[in-house]
Amino acid sequence: MAEIAEQGNNLRQNRVRESMERFRELPTNKRTLLYVGLAAIAALVIGTALWMREPTWKVLFSNVSDKDGGQITTALQQMNVPYELSPGGTIAVPAEKVYETRLKLASQGLPKASGVGFELMDNQKFGISQFAEQVNYQRSVEGELARTIQALSTVEAARVHLAIPKNSVFLREQQKPTASVVLNLNPGRLIDATQIHGIMNLVSSAVPGLPPRNITIVDQEGNLLSSMGELNQQNQNGLDQRQLTYVKEIEQTYIKRIETILEPIFGKGNARAEVTAELDFAQREQTSENYTPNSPPNAAAIRSQQMHESTEREPIGPGGVPGALSNQPPNAAAAPITLPPGTQAGITANGQAAPDKSSKKDSTVNYEVDRTIQHTKLPVGAIKRVSAAVVVNYKKKVDNNGESKFVPLTQQELGQINNLVKEAMGYNPTRGDTLNVVNAAFADNTARPALEQRAIDFVTENIFDIAKWGLLLLVLLYLIFGIIRPIVREVINPPVPEEEYPDGPAIEGEELTGEEGDEVVDDVELQRREYAANLEAAREIIRNDPRMAAQIIKEWISDE
């Protein structure tokens, strides 16, 4: 066994020596091509490693003036921070150092183009004039306002100019301050009327006596923006944007109601709804006064009551000598009078005629007027009208052959769906609501799975990086399998004579040498060559020591 192992080692050493000899016998052009291929592979590997180690640059500052840019680059050189300059005043540094570098530059007061604030008032000289002090104060206010406006996400830079007139003792000569604001918006960002209105109120609140209408705002293109804020200011409640948002919320609520009730019947994605809602955002207040006519006396409340009663009596008739006047009979009584017993009518107890008596009663009652005063404030955003459109896919039906197909709904089914949607949306014909339900076949646009969609999005976003790495990989594979591998195989696996194959004739093309020997040999050919080499080694061992070979064969047979 030891001799067999030794002979195997000798055989491998011989094959290595033969390979080295065949390599030296290669033509010069093949050896040069091999060297160039190996050098190209090494260069690609080293270049890829350096490329991957290259830092990812991130913007440190943009739109920097030349003066500030020079100071920033000088500070970066002193801090040993690599940087890149791009057109437009953009300075980029490695991504892992951007925040640390900003803090260090901010401690040095860079960049300075953002303007000065109230720190300008900290270093005033003693004995400064009142005019200079007023100018410094105005500059400080302008700088602070600019910094505050720059804090908005849509604003990249801002400049504020204030025109503050001198105070006058005469009321007619007093003037209001004015202000001008220049906004440099971020690329691709828009500013809406609400934000403009907020900037106008911000500047107005920071300067005493400055009304919002005296503020002019323009962008970097010279477009007047303050007119948008004035239009928004005319709406006292600022409901423009809120109205749109509220209408969308109402419509989405109706859509969700309709689709939620139809999805269990037709399946997800087989029913679609769109709703248009008309809302009334007018502010109305209503006052009404109602009177109840002819209320019963006992049901009405008494406001005031006045009673007056009066009684009058005639004087007793004259006495003395009877005459024509005294013999007249008394007047008839208005009501029966009950006299004491033994007394005649018209005769008093003492024998005289009773005087005449009259009484008068007046009663005045004033009742409260039964009226109702009602003050109603109508709600803002009441729904005036709702229009809904619903489209439903054909239903799936399985025929007698077991095949599924889509068929339209019947009129009865459409009527049921129509009634169902009306109940879901709160259909009110009084306010003019409309509903249209249509049954149609949906296009077969099957949505992609989420994983597949994410993969497509990833490829779309990184198409250039994928193309670069793919091209690099193709070049590397060509160098390895198109140049290096054929030459190496020609050196390691020499052509085998035809008589060494035990199974038949030699494979076509195995005798090719020189420039024709760079053809790729398949796996079957490699196995047959290895088998031939092993067979030649076994034959050589049998020729040198037949007894040992016979002993080895006996051991193999006994093991089986």
Structure commentary:
By secondary structure, this protein is of the alpha+beta class. It has 4 domains: 2-47 and 473-554, no CATH class; 56-111, Alpha-Beta Plaits (2-Layer Sandwich); 114-234, 2-Layer Sandwich (GMP Synthetase, Chain A, domain 3); 239-287 and 367-445, 2-Layer Sandwich (GMP Synthetase, Chain A, domain 3). Helices cover 42% and strands 19% of the residues. The protein is built from 13 helices and 15 strands. The protein has helices at residues 2-25, 28-53, 66-78, 98-107, 130-150, 193-206, 226-234, 240-266, 411-425, 450-461, 463-492, 523-544, 546-559; strands at residues 57-61, 84-86, 90-94, 155-163, 178-185, 215-219, 271-280, 285-291, 302-313, 357-367, 371-377, 382-392, 395-398, 404-407, 434-439. It has a 3-stranded antiparallel beta sheet with strand order 1-3-2, with helices on one face.
